Fold:
Amino acid sequence: MSSKEDILARIRQNTRTRYEMPDLKLDAITYEDKIHTFIEQLKAGGGEAHLLQPGEKVDEVIRSYYPDAKRIASNLPEIGCATFNPDELSDPRELDGTDLAIVKGSFGVAENAAVWLPKQTRHKAVFFISNALVILLDKEEIVHNMNEAYRRLADADYDYGVFMSGPSKTADIEQALVFGAHGPIRVTVVLV
Amino acid sequence: MTTKHAIAGTRFIANETQEKWHDETLWMVRAKRDKQSRSLPEWERLRDLASAIKMYSNSHLDTLLEEFERNAVANGAIVHWAKDAEEHNRIVYDILKQHGAKNLIKSKSMLTEECEMSPYLFSKGIDVVESDLGERILQLMKLKPSHIVLPAIHVKRQAIGQMMEEKLGTEPGNYDPTYLTHAMRRHLRDKFLHADVAMTGANFAVASTGEIVVCTNEGNADMGTSFPKVHIATFGMEKIVPNREALGVFTRLLARSGTGQPVTSYTSHYRRPPEGGEFHIIIVDNGRSDILADADHVKTLNCIRCGECMNTCPVYRRTGGYSYTYFIPGPIGINLGMLRNPKQFADNVSACSLCLSCSNVCPAKVDLGEQIYKWRQKLDRIGRANPEKKLMSAGMKFLMERPALFNTALKFAPVVNHLPRFMVYNAANAWGKGRELPAFAKESFNDLWKKNKVK
Structure:
């Protein structure tokens, strides 16, 4: 008998009461001002938010946050301040040393400031390897909570996707919070 | 007879400053959890749902695991099944061998600890590199984790700094956490870029989509899987959730419970192999299917490994993770150890005050404290009952069943108040260790009642 058959046979033999799947209906929290809650939550998690004002240009806003960035990766056609297109690199290792990457979020979640980022570049390393990350997010695309978020993803197709909430962080040394454990040290969400 | 937990706990307590810090720091994490849970009016409903979903999924593992496999294979993954730790480790090694891999970068996984995978792979000449910052620190210090979510909670910054001076050449005397973390970032960046194969555990495996979900704050699982052509993900079979909607319930509970954050920085969904590479998924039993038949303890399979039962446990906080003899400490570790090998791990069953704080905060409603109580009832059967307490209990039973004798004994009880200490606090009185007996009253309640002195 293969291990698979063996394991399944043991499961069938040992399973006692078979419980029903519960109804997942839930009165989950909603917020009066989702954009405001999203921004507050993002700040609490160590991220920054910029609500684009009328007349402001995305490129200029990004530049104002990261005036010293030299190597800037983005495959977004609307981004003019990128210095290279990461999709043109065949080896993701070549991305090491990137100062800033600019990507697009599908939607955000107010309760925890997570942004859904499906893989959108040739290498998913783009999300993690640069010192800073700018996420462009349509401010109308913010849901209240994670239950809503996963309902929205119920049939979504992707190779890889991540809910990202703020910068990479750790408190493994004496519970002292430090940003930039491995991934971006700074994350800025530009709400457009 | 003192348990191994009590002996090791006494050592931990000896360093009062460290014990106080450990206790207060973990309580602070627990307080952060309370703040998070109170921010959601639906918190208790979420716990109920999480528990009900787990009761469903753990009683339908046969169908859900097959559904998972079908979908994972359709996504292009290669699925393996491992009956036990040995088979699990062999599968991992075979994949590494096939690819001529010399090193493996891995994110934190309690399952690989359970399987003792790293020592096995080291013995085969594979360099296993832990990528979680705390785990890497411990690996370089040749220490074991003392908490499942905060692995290095017992180590002080000076010790970490001194190790890093020696092994990574950091500035002597610089123990600043930010400095040390960023030095570790550079050290591990190099490891990420030169890894042959990446390995992760899984917080959840979604049956309806065949994807696995890994939650980290550091992004180490994502960095690790971004460069090698091969990703191996391994999970214990109770990690299965039926679909993404159910997953939504757990992602709202996990970090809030474990570390008091609304969510981890990264909740990563791995569905298809990396470009031109392979995605291996190992489904592991290793004793889990036996637990299904154990009505008293089947709920341990609800556990989502958030670590909260450790943070809230007064015994864990004051005695530290190393006081337990099973590799997972705290309330959940006591129970999992007993399910692994009751004779070997019975020492941990005493590490509980039955306050039930763990049961009250567990996001998946595992009845942790109640189960520990049940194990205590079984200690005698497995030959691990404390002989002094057993003798004392037998004496008490004899007395309780004979009212006349009991009343006489009671009349003479105040004599104990005046006995020299060595006669009361000695090896025969297991309850006298670390405790002061209350003074016996001059008159018993019975006598007071009869003399109408009870108002």
